[in-house]
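I had to read the description of the data format several times before I understood it. The format is easy to grasp once an entry is in front of the reader. For illustration, here is how one protein appears when written out as sequence plus structure tokens:
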Amino acid sequence: MRDALAPSQTLDADSLLRRVESLRRFLRAVDGLLPPDRLTGAHTVVERADARLSLSREHTVVALAGSTGSGKSSLFNALAGFALSPVGARRPTTGEAHACVWGSLDGANALLDWVGVLPRHRFVRESALDGNDHTALHGLVLLDLPDFDSVRRAHATEVDRLLGLVDLIVWVVDPQKYADRAIHDIYLRKLQSHADVTVVVLNQADRLAGDEQEAVVGDLRRLLTEDGLPDVPVVATSALRAPALSPLRMLLEKTVVQRQAALMRLSADVDATADRLGELVGPAAAEDAVDRAAVAALVDAFAVMAGVPAVVEATERAYRHRAAGLTGWPLLRGLRRLRPDPLRRLHLDLPSAGPSDGLLDGLREDEPAPVAATSVPDPDASQRSAVKLAVRQVADRAAEALPEPWRPGVLDAARSRLDDVRDSLDTAVAGTDLGLRTPIWQRVTGFTQWLVTLAAGIGLGWLIVGYAIRALGLPALDYPDVGATPLPTVMFLGGLLTGGLLALLVRPVIAFAARRARRRADQRLRAEVTTVARRHVVAPVREVLQSYARAREAMALARSDHA
């Protein structure tokens, strides 16, 4: 067994503060991501540490705790030298905590206010008649707690509250009830992480002969070893014999002089909390560990829900429609314009783009400004199910490396912005520049079609004038010849043939260019859909992963001094 309450190393208050701050950072990182009931204890420890470290460190709060009849009140009075706490045969006797302060009350009153001892139950152990007998205990704040096994439930509740606040716990047992399972199962067995601030006192040892006392103390040590407290000091005392108080008094004097009990208690609280929270953090996980295949599946599902396939198909047909209207025979273009543009049916346009840059080339200046919205049908049940499945897949893949308690938080984060996805996709699709521009070759082809049509018209008109003159009996016109064919005939037939041939020649070119426009539109639309997917699903998931990384780092710092 180690020396009574001798710390393995001197604790540094600044180091403890850093650990408490790390625990606070952990709580901030996991706020809203982990079940609150699993974090209640940690919040309590942080608040308790902040409060205790802000109060007097020159005082050490020691609690005498025990069951009914253990004699802790008698022991409290014997240490104080006065009958301060009521003692009697009728149980329970101690209903409220009593405190005795050795030395000045400066700083002790604020500490007792925080602990919750009523002013009328506070006493000062300072007398001129004592000389220097109690100097070594200056700074001790000794509490006599209610019986933890009292028939009054309020007493046990008060004991539990005070045990969470004091710096050192002295458990008082008696030869008859030292093996009572209540104190071992309910309290001692749960104090393994607080062994450095726990003492067990076998009171009323005067009732035992020398051999009996040694045997009882040995059996008590055995029980404490089974409780996981093999190194907890065990002291035999008697409130009736002053010499029998010496071991306990010396232990308290050493505790007061060292001024380490408060730090040891808080450090043990942080250790115990870190151990409980340890299962909430595991191996490191990359902050951007979102599976690419899962994101690709999500983009596919979003694309279908946004109507990207329909827009891509309409883009190809719109390209063919516009190219054919520009490069076809000018006399038939009016008929083509009666057919609506495929993209116009979807109400796709860019509100800020000019007629030459938007999706509807040739938009008239007097037409109303386009709206960034589409008439793509709303997603059906199968599309919504595919999106939900894809979102879950992203969350599941991202949470694979995380402990189980984090996985619901990752899924909740992935779903957190889904209500805005439909509108965002609609805006993204409507605002995408699909790259439908009129290339130079189409303009040249269209200009050429007008030239050959004009030539055919001039040739036809020339021939009609010649026939009319001949019909009136006037001298016939002398047509220039191209070879053996009159020039007007060449212009008329040549214009018609050239226009038709030119239209046939550009058809495969238009088909090829339309397929390229389709691929380009698909790439641009999917890029916009990917942006929406990353903003509404991937980004929240990565925020959780970043929170996990911060929580893991903070927990490592909180446990850095934990042996």
Remarks:
- Residues 24 and 223 are 36 Å apart (CA to CA).
- Confidence is low (pLDDT under 50) at residues 88-92, 349-372.
- The chain is about 55% helix and 5% strand.
